[in-house]
Design goal:
The protein is α+β, with helices and mostly antiparallel strands and about 450 residues long. Helix content is about 40%, strand content about 20%. The chain has helices at about 15-35, 50-55, 60-65, 90-95, 140-160, 170-180, 185-190, 195-210, 215-225, 230-240, 250-270, 335-345, 365-380, 395-400, 415-420, 440-445, and strands at about 40, 45-50, 65-70, 80-85, 105-115, 125-135, 160-170, 275-280, 295-300, 305-315, 325-330, 355-360, 385, 405-410, 420-425, 430-435. Strand 15 and strand 16 form a beta hairpin.
Length: about 450
């Protein structure tokens, strides 16, 4: 019988101790910020009824759903199921299903894995974590402000400089209206969203192929060439939407979007957000569901694409029979944030240190002596290991070194007789003796 070589499915990953310590550092930082804004954590099952998922992500999204084969005696009668594709649709299902148990506005976050039957490639996996934060049941732009503040706080804690890009779906609709192509809003915005990647000439070419007139393209080109501060862009856009473009068309929808942006940027100024925040008129993500503000966050010191994205949606729960419930949210890209922190060497070195003190073991008597001392230190919140069997001291020192353990305690017959404990700082070389009863003092030295 041949020995099977161990492996995992394509598009999935193992996470070792180092990776888990770093990932938990990111998640714990994000959780701590969310909590300060009154958001609470929920979880939904990995599997949902297939009817919950189908039709929510478009034709291409439906093809990427992992379906679960029913099993058991009544398999044929059971509803078909699938692994969740994202956290947004399960969140909408949760809100509708539990509407009698929650109060509005409902502020929640989720940090859980999702699955997509995509073709695995660099940076793209079939199983990956999403970290979503949403508030539903309120139209106040205070919610958009708090999302920006949370992004600002998270990346300040992580030590990453970011730029927060903001646009508004109503403004994008205004583009198409004053270009004389209101029926081509999706074609126009899909093209301009690629501006950074393909350049203006290719964007113009793509719009022309979609049937946008030359005069309409000139209007959009004028918009995309606007520069300066938020106030300067705002003033120029306001004039265009009021009929100042070459088409002379007025866009009421565009003006409504500008009014929302003016209020939001005013709130951001009042809040004293320290991160760079820009109005990006080419930002056009999430066109199938966003109805108001659109967000994208990029790292300033590491080239990787967006590390957060989100926006406002006005009818997410309508697909489950609860229409008219507006919400806004943002998703933190945990894997990309991990890559940024790794690339910029921003992970604290102490993350890989899980144990503070190692008790070396010389024999059975020494083992019995240190067990109660170790227990007492653990009760004080100190992470302690006892080497599991008598061994050469060199081997035990090597173990401490490999595991980044900063302190070691070596106790023989003399220490047992004296009722003392020796503790050595392996980094500084400082060594100190304590009475075995001086647990608080030992804990203080280890901290």
């Amino acid at each position: 019988m041949s020995i099977q070589k161990p492996s995992i499915p394509k598009g999935t990953r193992d996470f070792g101790q180092k990776e888990m310590a770093r990932r938990n550092y990111i998640f714990d930082t994000i959780r701590s910020v969310f909590a300060t804004f009154g958001y609470s954590e929920i979880q939904t099952p990995a599997q949902e009824n297939l009817s919950t998922l189908l039709g929510k992500y478009g034709e291409e999204g439906d093809k990427l759903l992992f379906r679960i084969q029913n099993s058991g005696e009544k398999a044929a009668l059971a509803p078909e199921k699938g692994l969740r594709y994202d956290l947004t649709v399960p969140f909408a299902r949760f809100v509708v299903q539990h509407q009698s148990e929650i109060s509005m506005p409902f502020k929640r976050f989720q940090i859980q894995p999702v699955w997509r039957a995509d073709r695995p490639q660099k940076g793209r996996y079939r199983e990956f974590y999403q970290c979503d934060v949403d508030v539903i049941g309120s139209t106040s732009l205070l919610n958009e402000l708090e999302l920006v503040q949370m992004v600002d706080a998270v990346f300040r804690k992580l030590g990453v400089r970011v730029a927060v890009k903001i646009n508004n779906r109503k403004v994008l609709t205004g583009f198409a209206e004053i270009a004389g192509a209101p029926d081509k809003v999706v074609d126009i915005t899909v093209a301009i969203d690629k501006l950074d990647k393909i350049g203006m000439d290719k964007v113009v070419e793509e719009m022309a192929e979609k049937g946008v007139s030359a005069s309409g393209i000139d209007v959009i080109r004028e918009i995309l060439s606007l520069g300066g501060s938020f106030r300067e862009k705002f003033s120029s856009m306001k004039a265009l939407f009021e009929g100042g473009s070459s088409s002379g068309i007025v866009s009421e929808e565009g003006l409504r979007g500008l009014a929302e942006l003016e209020e939001l940027f005013g709130l951001i100024d009042i809040a004293g957000v320290s991160s760079q925040v820009d109005l990006d008129l080419s930002l056009a993500r999430g066109l199938n569901y966003y109805t108001g503000a659109i967000f994208e966050v990029k790292a300033l010191d590491w080239e990787i694409g967006s590390i957060c994205g989100g926006g406002r949606y006005d009818n997410l729960t309508g697909i489950f029979g609860l229409p008219g419930l507006s919400g806004v949210g943002i998703s933190f890209g945990a894997d990309r944030i991990y890559d940024v922190l790794t690339g910029l060497e921003l992970f604290p070195p102490t993350l890989e240190q899980s144990t503070t003190l190692l008790f070396a073991v010389m024999g059975a008597d020494e083992l019995c002596y240190v067990i109660p001392i170790a227990a007492a230190l653990r009760s004080k919140g100190i992470s302690v290991e006892i080497y599991p069997e008598p061994s050469k001291l060199k081997k035990q020192f090597e173990y401490a070194d490999r595991h980044n353990i900063p302190f070691i305690s070596i106790n023989g017959s003399n220490e047992i007789e004296a009722g003392s404990v020796n503790v050595k700082n392996l980094q500084s070389g400082e060594q100190k003796a304590f009475k075995a009863s001086e647990i608080d003092e030992i804990a203080g030295f280890l901290r």
